[in-house]
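To: structure desk
From: M.T.
Subject: fold request, one chain
Message: Could you run this one when you get a chance? Sequence is below, nothing fancy, just the single chain.
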Amino acid sequence: MVWFHSWAGLLSGWILYVICVTGSFAYVQDEVTRWMRPELPLPSATRPAGDLLTLAEDHLAKNGADAAFWAILFPGQRGADDLAVGWTPRPGMPLAGAFQRVILDQQTGAPVERHSRATGGGQTITAMHYALHYMSRDAGTLVVGAAAMLMFVVLLAGIAAHKKIFREFFTFRPGRGQQSWLDGHTTLAVTVTPFLLLMTWSGLIFSTFVYMPAAQATFFSDVEGLARFQEEAFQYVPPRPENRFARAAPVTSLHAVLSRAEQRWGEGSVSRLRVENPGRADAVVMVYALQAGISGETRLLFSGVTGEALPDPNSRTGPGTFYAGMLGLHKGYFARGYLRALFVLCGLASAGLIATGLVRWSIKRQGPASQRHMGHTVVAALNSGTIIGLPIGLAAYFWANRIVPPAMEGRETWEANALFIAWGVAFVYAAGRHSVRAWAEMCVVAGAAWGLLPVLNALTTERHLGVTVPAGDWVLAGFDLSALAAGIFFVALAWKLARKPAEAV
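Reply: Done. Structure tokens follow.
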């Protein structure tokens, strides 16, 4: 078990480190995206949902009277601070089938335009978590799946290898070389192994048919079979089709529906409303809760004519419920505030677990420079180029968001290119100078890149700490403060590494 844990962990460690770091950002991708769109206004105090509903209804009645559906999104959701309405015109109408979305002023109900720079936002980093970059999504998903499967087995082997894990958890011996790295690795392992087991297994579960498609291809081979498979295994039962012969009927009072939902969930708990077939006798109103459950969105259904509560016809099957639960646990749909921050810390601690394991593998096998194997040099370069290079690349991604001209065509692509260019330069530097000095110097670069990010933000936008903290916008302020904390961490690490002898790592 020790042998397998060491070597399998080494072979998969670098890509798993990338997966864990980028997965940590995935829990705050909406917040990251908002920081990367500084042209958007600061959030303001919102009016009661009932008042906003009146404004939304007025606009939809004037502009979407013949729509196939209405959608009303209330402010207060993650990544959404505006009141917005949407609709799709029915067949035969102008712009039929094209979704229309309008942001409304929360005081007057007048349409408002929002202009912001094009950016990949947090989604670019999140996509790296499950599909990497510069390759097809299918290929990236398969590579990540293979690494995740190996990680799951490595975790089990590590649990078996450390049979005295709880005693080792309370043992830390600083300044003892590889023994200190082992102690740090074990401490992190005891702390985050439950989190890693859940994340790894749930990730494998909800991508099962991507990694192992034979059963699906065998038993659901035709088009109808595929639809049945989607219905039985994963998704809601498809909604009933529109009855084109349904008579015209006025829409029920949406205020009464909103009131009933808030009585069920609490005031200010509704995130959005959707009205299917407004103005017809078969209309249905769907009300969604602001706080999602483990399995995703929570909703209530009402008749769109009488306003009476309806049973949800789209209840999940047993396998669908299990799948949705695993997906919700993995993505943290239910987590808000401090719990979401804890998810981020657990993800970063998981990356630290992998990093300490990789470094310990290298230190354990290093000898005099004249006796080092070429493989050890390669591992040392991969360690520093990945463990410190990736944070440098991520910082470059955020720097590019502020430096690349807002009007530049394809600027979101160049944001991602900046990430990999900086990361590639770090790899080249690590390969040419594989020593503790290289680690310290790269940490200085990472510390400067992250620590000066709030300064760059203040010089290039009006959404700096001097504005966001007094305004109480802790999403934007929290990003700047987190970047500053990351810069301090890397500078402290550089200071510690600079005091060590210059042997290879």
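Reply (cont.): The chain has three domains: 1-40+116-237+328-364, 49-106+242-314, 370-505. Let me know if you need anything else for the meeting.
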